[in-house]
Amino acid sequence: MARPMGPRFKIARRLGVNVFNHPKALKRGVKNQKLSEYGKQLQEKQKLKGYYGILEKQFRRYVHEALNTRENSGEILVQNLERRLDNLVYRLGFGSTLRQARQMVVHGHILVNGKKIDIPSYRVNIGDAITLMEKSRKNELFIENFQSTSLSIDYLEKDIENFSGKLVKKPSREAVPIDVIDSRIIEFYSKN
Question: Would you say the pTM of this structure is higher than 0.90?
Answer without folding.
Answer: no
